């Protein structure tokens, strides 16, 4: 049994964050574990508030996992303040984590800020160099690089800028581009690969980014290459979005259907 760890924020609504990560791990055939770095009060309508977990308890959670159930891959999500980012980066370096997926969560689906500006510096300087893959969407990539992304050429240039920041590979998610199809661009450090999927007309996309990054981590835990891990994760997420309306959860941006392969 391969194992994956998520270090992120808890979503009380169950659609994103730790809860989505664990669902995504399970649906992709790995044993999931969690380190909760923040607790949010949220639902399909938005984030009503959040509180950071004290650093000593984040530290303790990480040590507990690595002392007994060493993960084959780690995914990070919401790390809302610079001290949390620094601690997580130090611990992952200490435990020599090789398969690290960093999802630079900055803004919730409903628009709430989930990452302070001060934390961005530590994210770039301390976590990106350890990451096998980072998975920013277009607004996050624009914030990280200061470059406006409008065209496919912009996406290619941005991937190069992000690898210059230290990441070994970048999956730049193009869902915010507003095109008829959704185009994600992977730069694996050597080559570019475009993943084109049909855009689904649904408001139920809460947790898509978390779940995609977690699916990639699950596949890396299973010893896949970066390209195969991303390709398989993209196919899984596409199905989860296509079946999202079957759940009909909440009155806002509902969750995707993590277990569409197992029940409808």
Automatic annotation (TrEMBL):
Its EC number is 2.7.1.49. GO terms for cellular component: cytosol. It holds the Pfam family Phos_pyr_kin. Residues 11-257 form the Pyridoxamine kinase/Phosphomethylpyrimidine kinase domain. Pathway: Cofactor biosynthesis; thiamine diphosphate biosynthesis. Keywords: ATP-binding, Kinase, Nucleotide-binding, Transferase. Gene3D superfamilies: 3.40.1190.20. One of its GO terms (biological process) is thiamine biosynthetic process. One of its GO terms (molecular function) is hydroxymethylpyrimidine kinase activity. NCBIfam families: HMP-P_kinase (TIGR00097). This is hydroxymethylpyrimidine kinase.
């Amino acid at each position: 049994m391969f194992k994956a760890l998520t270090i992120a924020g808890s979503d009380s609504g169950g659609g994103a964050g730790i809860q989505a990560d664990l669902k995504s791990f399970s649906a992709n055939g790995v044993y999931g574990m969690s380190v909760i770095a923040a607790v949010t009060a949220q639902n399909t309508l938005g984030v009503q508030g959040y509180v950071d977990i004290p650093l000593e308890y984040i530290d303790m959670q990480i040590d507990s996992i690595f002392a007994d159930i060493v993960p084959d891959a780690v995914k990070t999500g919401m790390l809302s303040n610079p001290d949390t980012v620094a601690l997580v980066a130090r611990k992952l370096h200490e435990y020599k984590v090789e398969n690290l997926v960093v999802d630079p969560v900055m803004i919730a689906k409903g628009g709430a800020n989930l990452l302070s500006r001060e934390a961005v510096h530590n994210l770039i300087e301390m976590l990106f160099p350890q990451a096998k893959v980072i998975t920013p969407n277009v607004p996050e990539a624009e914030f990280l690089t200061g470059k406006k992304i409008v065209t496919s050429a912009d996406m290619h240039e941005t991937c190069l800028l992000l690898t210059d920041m230290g990441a070994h590979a970048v999956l730049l998610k193009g869902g915010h581009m507003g095109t008829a199809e959704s185009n994600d661009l992977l730069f694996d450090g050597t080559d570019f690969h475009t993943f084109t999927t049909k855009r689904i007309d649904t408001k139920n996309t809460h947790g898509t980014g978390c779940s995609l990054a977690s699916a990639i981590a699950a596949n890396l835990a299973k010893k896949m290459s970066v390209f195969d891990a991303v390709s398989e994760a993209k196919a899984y997420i596409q199905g989860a979005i296509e079946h999202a309306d079957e759940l009909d959860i909440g009155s806002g941006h509902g969750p995707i259907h993590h277990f569409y392969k197992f029940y409808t």
